[in-house]
Amino acid sequence: MAGQEHSSGIAEHLQYWTYSFDKSNPFMQIHLDTMLLTILVALGLIVFSLWLRGRLVAGAPTGVQNFMESVIEFINQTVKDNFSVNNPLIAPLAMTIFIFILLCNLFDILPAYLMHHIAALFGLHAFRQVPTNDLNLPVAMAISIFLLVLYYEFKLKPLHFLKELLLQPFAALLLDSKNPVVKVLGVLLIPLNLTLKLIEEFAKPLSLAFRLFGNMFAGEVIFLLIASLLLVHNVHDLSSVGGVVSGVLGLLVGLGWSLFHMFIGLLQAFIFMILSVVYLSIAHQPVEH
Amino acid sequence: MDPHTIITAATAISVGVILAAAGLGSAIGWGLICSKTLEGIARQPEMRPQLMFNMFIFAGLMESFPFIIMAFALWFLFANPFIA
Prior knowledge:
The complex is a heterodimer of chains A (289) and B (84).
Chain A: H1 2-12, E1 18-20, E2 29-31, H2 32-54, H3 63-82, H4 90-106, H5 114-121, H6 136-156, H7 158-167, H8 172-175, H9 180-188, H10 190-227, H11 241-284
Antiparallel strand pairs in A: 1-2
Chain B: H1 3-43, H2 48-62, H3 64-78
């Protein structure tokens, strides 16, 4: 009974502040808390950049400029190591991805239910404070990267890309043999080639999205599970010995997991950035003969 | 037994199996990555910072699959799609 209460309690903590255009269609919904927080982060970044631009100093930088220069140097080095062609879009894109995902993940420092309590004062029924918790945000970013990769593939080497889609991996049958029967077999295998290549092409953005989502979502649920480690059922019992012991235990475990989760948030932002740069660099590889 | 009980019981068992697989895969993956890193450090001690840095990056990449299936397992556990 208490177990079921706990699990339904956790499930109800995983609701979003949604606005439904059409209640019968589960796709016509907007998660307003995610939208609000991402717009806030983006506006904050723009305002910060404009403010920093006003006080740039050539020569020996100090303070905020020093920190931002080290970040930019780090991203510059990473992009230079992984991207061999010249494209002025990639490094700013990498920096935007890294800093944006990092800032969104940093919202997890707040206690898991804090924004919900604040939002309840305004009459909202739910508010999740980590935007990357929501499946929509990582999938949207991964779809953007996927569309960019497709755009560059079609722009820079359309014929090669088409040949790759239709003829890999069973290319030798069609191209190298002299026997016309084997050539016909090669043509018949084109749908199979296309299927395999499409699965491989779609697996990349899907894994990109789910990696980020899975890490952040699982982290949040573990925070909620740690909170339910408190073995007492009301606040009045917290002062008992059992209450104090389980409270301290929950605090220590929660602290440990919080530090680890911050590290994971940083690492996943970095991995998203590096994988986007690597996928784009694959799309930019010149065709060798 | 009514269908709701059967589905809940089956979900519980499957969540256990999924989490066991996640733990197993993650542990074995980390073990392989760290053992190769240690071999590399033993061969060339001056490469230690490079190797450690790369170890964390690739371990974060490999850690993604256990996290993905753990997210699925938690979804089955708390917002079970098989019920209704």
